[in-house]
Amino acid sequence: MSETITGWSVHSGNIYVAPVSFGVHQVFLDDEHMILAHHPNDSFLWTDGESEQTETNYYVYDADHGLTNEQLIGADMNIRTSPWKVDFSQILDYDPVTHKITMGVLGSNESENDSYFLANKLWMLDSPGEWYYESGNLYVWMPDDSNPSSHKVEATRYWHGIYARDKEYIATDGFEIRNAGFAGVGLFNTNKFSLTDLNIINIGSMKYYNPWEHVGAGIFIYNSIGMSNTAGEIIGNTIRNTFSNGLRSITISNLVVADNIVENIAMVGADHYFPARGIGIQTSGWNVTIRENRVDDISYIGILFTGMNSLVEKNCINNSCDCLDDCGGIYTSRTDSNGNEISRNIITNTGNHNTNTMGIYLDDRSTGILVSDNTVSFARIGIHNHNGNNNTITNNTIYDCKWSAGMQEDRIVENDVCNNIFENNIYFSKIDESLVGISDYREPIFFQDFADHDYNTYSGRNSGKVISERGSGYPLKYYSLTEWQDAHGQDLNSRFVAQSTTIDPCEYSMILINTDPTSRQFSYDDYAISGKEYIDLNGDLIIWPVTLDGYSSKIITQATCENQGYHCCHSCFTGHYPEYDCDCAGLMCCQSCVPLLIIPQDGWRLVYFDSEELVGAYKPAVYSFDGDPCTIWHTEWYYSDPPHPHEIQINLSDSYELGGFRYLPRQDDNENGMIDEYEFYVSTSGTDWEQLVPVASGNLVADKTEKTVLFDITQGQYVRLVALSEVNDGPWTTIAELNVLAVQPDTDINDDGTVNIEDFAVLAVWWDDENVCSSPDWCDGADFDMSGTVDMLDLTYFAENWLR
């Protein structure tokens, strides 16, 4: 669809010119795109304040462009009038006094402070690799400043590769179509067509001669004869490197779009200027099936569909919304969406966390849609329901999105967002934000009517923040899962899976995704970190290789003490379970996980504290380990306010293998004294603190929940907690309860390698004798939880390890 250009001569400097007998849409140098001349080259210009428009013109103001009337008038302005749209029109007039730029009508609403660039003037041809066409002449500046006669320079001449109008029974197979100006295949008012095995490359126009050109596509099908009268199939084609869209089917029903590869859509030149509003696959019609397509590197939406009774399944969409915003990997809208299904799609890398991009976007008035068994990884919002109702979102896996799911109402219509269902979904995020965001910008708000939530799995590095609500006149509010359940009666059968806060989130978790139609195995060597064990979100150990069905995924995390209720040694500590070996060559011994238990506070002795309040209120230091969460140790405040650091030292009465501590902040409505930065020490003598380094240090989360801090297994009898600061920068320290965690004694009492009947016999000897067990032998090792009595809890631990 292009012609080789010859007859080159020097125009000026490094710019060459050749006569051309047709309007040029794009130019290729040795089969690679050249870039249309534009201004500025590597940045954008910006309008000042608000734009204006009438029925015939669009107006913007810019006092900083530095250009003359001659340079501006006749140029094309490409202006981003919204996050999701780039408009273009020719500049008709410029007033240098008011700095008012007049263009033709854009069809966009007024906007303000928009970015734009200019094209379609010869003076803009000022850099190597650019071209310009005007009045039968093509101008180029070669990348190496050479004469274009020594290269193959082609210019697009024809609008279509294949064109048909008002026809039926059209079939194409096995063609390669290159360099068309509007569409590789353009069908208008056609029916019963079959497009298969086409290779369509380099379609579209950099230089627009009319408003229609920017809506072209590799395959463009438009029907005005009534959707019920149409049928067709688009199967097994490849569409690459278009300037506008990949595949557009408008008002076509009974259509199958399957097994196509659509990639690099409206991305050519994106590092130089705005791309077009490129969509990978777009359909509008009833009974449409979009199945098993590969869509990759798309400037705007990956797959857009509207209409009823349509199925979008088993597609893989990667790197959509690369350039434009308010966008989705899969997007749909409108009220006539009943019977639609979006299932088993894999949607990855949709925009980024800082733009308004969604993996699956149910936009205005989406109704009656089933969204099931999809995987969405890395988007700002995994699945977003915007002004939609009666939709069911179920069995989806959302990984590492800023918000896993979102619901938003911004129409002045009561209960426009209602009767939705979110159930059996996995929401997993490594970002410190709520997992599901709900917003309502009406007055009054109706959060509680948006949807029913249940049987979901929430997992985040966010201190348990599961849901956030915000709205007009309604302050941002975060809920833990328990708070959400209590406040709204939602998610009563859902769960929260805590994530490790001590392991780099980039290494802690991963998602295995099978983008193939058939099952696939994932090997340990290819995906895991050497030496690490992994578990699933149920806590079950991962057995490699992992086999996944087609178009499915699995989230796995490192097996740590935090997510298993165990502690992994980080120095070479002999594990209690003989089947796990401690890797002494490496310091991370995560296969030697040992259970930790709370040491009974009975027998603890207060050794030292720096301050306590006994006058204004009775808050002695011993209240920090009295077993009562309603009492607190408070440093002095009545007569004076001693500054930080504050500390407490405790004798645990016996020596233990220690692995962590728990800090419970005060449980009243006051935050005074809640610890922020801390250090924790362990000693065997209690006299050598100055020679020791802390076994744990850091900052505690500023809320009322109990905090668990784990550290490498350390032998000791004395502990020291030093508070370095307070959450509100006050001078005090408070503790409701301090507990210390120690390694549970081995259930293999006789050390013969198996927990068996001989061990049970020892347990039976000491059964139910109260308060007779003590360190170091703990009733010959039968008091596993070190409570002082061999009881039901010890029998439970024993049973868990029977015959191991």
3D architecture notes:
There is one protein chain. This protein is mostly beta strands. Helix content is 5%, strand content 40%. It is built from 7 helices and 68 strands. The strands form 10 sheets. Strands 18-21-24-27-30-33-36-39-42-45-48-51-52 form a 13-stranded mixed sheet. It has a 12-stranded parallel sheet with strand order 20-23-26-29-32-35-38-41-44-47-50-53, with no helix packed on it. β12 and β13 (100-104) form a beta hairpin. The longest helix has 9 residues, at 757-765. The chain starts with a strand and ends with a helix.
Q: What keywords describe this structure?
A:
single chain, 804 residues, mainly beta, 13-stranded mixed sheet, twelve-stranded parallel sheet, 5% helix
Strand content: 35-45%
What is the 3D shape? elongated
> Which bin fits the share of residues in helices?
under 10%
Low-confidence stretches: 561-593
Order of strands across the widest beta sheet? 18-21-24-27-30-33-36-39-42-45-48-51-52
- Cα(first) to Cα(last) distance is 73 Å
Tell how many strands the DSSP assignment holds: 68
